[in-house]
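Attaching the record inline, Q. Sequence:
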Amino acid sequence: MCINRVEKAILVGLSASGREFNLHSDESTLDELEALVETAGGQAVARVLQNRNAPEPATLIGEGKVREIAALAEDLQADMIVFDNQLTPIQMRNLEEAINRPILDRTGVILDIFALRAKTAEGKLQVELAQYKYLLPRLMGQGKNLSRLGGGIGTRGPGETKLETDRRHIRARIEKLEEELERVRKVRHEQRRRREKNGVPTVALVGYTNAGKSTLLNALTGAGVHAQNRLFDTLDPTTRLMTLDDGMDVLVTDTVGFIRDLPHQLVNAFRATLEELAYADLVLHVIDASHPDREQQAIVAEQLIDELCDKETPRVRVFNKIDLSDYESLPPESDDVVCISAANGTNLDGLKRRLKEKLDERKIVFSVCLPYGEAGLLSRIYEEGTVESEAYTEAGIVVSGKCGPKLYGRIAPYARE
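Structure, as predicted:
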């Protein structure tokens, strides 16, 4: 962003009525796009919504609408045009030449925000990889945009690369980043293996951006994670230990927020981070109960959860921010639904009870005879499971109770017939 002034943007959205086209921009999606632009440091000064039977291949919106936007940009002295729909490289080039303004689409803005938010070395690697994969097919259509070195939204990170940067160099950089992230994946795998060996269950907080996941992590664990009311405020995942009332230790992980049309480049780049979801023992889907489009946001998040999580992993829908909601609109609580306010602590005890119940449901009834040489396993059973009976015999220590799948896999060889 320019330091001296805020860049002005005109927002454009297309809704194509044909069934074969998945383009459904409306006022609510432009509201979200405006929030994204503001998060990136810009200001929306106008909106243009168009309905067509089908997108126009060369410009998406058609020549007449392009001329209208060009005139509007001159009148308002707009710095850029931001599309709610994803643009092809050819469309981006044609629009930039016709309107004589930098052109961005929703994906470009989201990538720019992630570049702004990434703080850790891993996060920066992941964002850079996503940006390069987005940039590569668009090199021929981003001349003026890329020449704005440090000149505004969409030019952070690789976006500031000079135009003469060739495809060969970018492909080599992509290969290098993928190698570095593969090493990150191996480190995470080893960390996960050690956690599984210790038998501590893991709970993943997932949901739409700004649903309050970081605030909930702080409320449950005292993590002290920075949390503000803005999109993608927390980018790098955080894991903290929580001890339940019965002494059970649980690891709680806050993950990156989801959003409608989350760029596939980001999903792929953050695979090393997001694959933690596939190994969680429980998923808490955090939903902003106060948001007018909460059900649509929940659907978007559920689709990504389905893609990233094991289908057998239990889930609980956690409706957050009920202090800002109409109580009559809240869903009834059930085994899979809890209503809370992470900010003021409302019903957090109820959430913890539900969390424990869900983890207990996965526990396996066992009866084992531990050899005295494996007596150390008895302390693990007490720490991680529930002991119903214990007896010392000539054959070994006979123990019955319940435990999680990970610990059961360790003690199963000593099961009594």
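The longest strand covers residues 42-52. The chain has three domains: 7-160, 200-360, 363-414.

More tomorrow.
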